[in-house]
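Teaching soon. Got one?

===
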Amino acid sequence: MIEIISGCLPQETNTRIIHLLINEAKWSIAGDTTKPAVKKYMSREKGKDAGFSYLTYDYYNNINVLTSLNVYANIIHDFVRANTKIYKIKNPVRYLWNYYNKGSGGDWHIDNGKDPQGKYMTIVYSLNYCDGGTSVKTSKEEKYSQSKPSEAVCFPGKFLHKGHGPKKYLGRFNLTMLSLGE
C-alpha cells in the first residue's frame, strides 16, 4: 500500500533546500546501490540518463556528511513518522537527494537490495512541483505519483519503484529516505 503525506514543510523552506542542493551538493550520476558502468550508462533506454544523486547519510556504510541538508532531512523524516496513518516508521537508514532533468529517467529498483525481505520503508519527498514523479509497483498495481512540493510518498522498501524526470519543467528535486519499519 502507498501512503501520501502532505504539508511537511513550507515552500520557502523547500526553496532553501533547493538552493543548498544547487550550490553545495556533490552530485554524481544516480545509481541506487552501485554506480552504472560506462557501457550501461551510454546505452540507456531512449537516451535518458538516470538523474543525479547526492548521498548525505547512510547508517550501514558509516556516511554522515556534515551538511545542513541532513538537518532538513531529519525534520522531514520526523514529520512523516509522526503523520503516517498506515506505517510504523523508526530510524532513518539513508538520505539520498535526487535531481532529474528532462533527459532523466530512473530504472526499476528496490531500496533495500541487500535485505529485500527486511522491514524497511521508502519515503520519497518532493521539493518542487513538476510533471515528473515516482512510479511504484505493488503486488496488485502500478501507481504513479506526480511530484508535488511538500508531499511524501511512503511505501515498503521491498516495492519496485523508479523516478521520472519532468517533460515540460526544467528539473525535479526530491529526497529519498530509507527507514527502518515494523
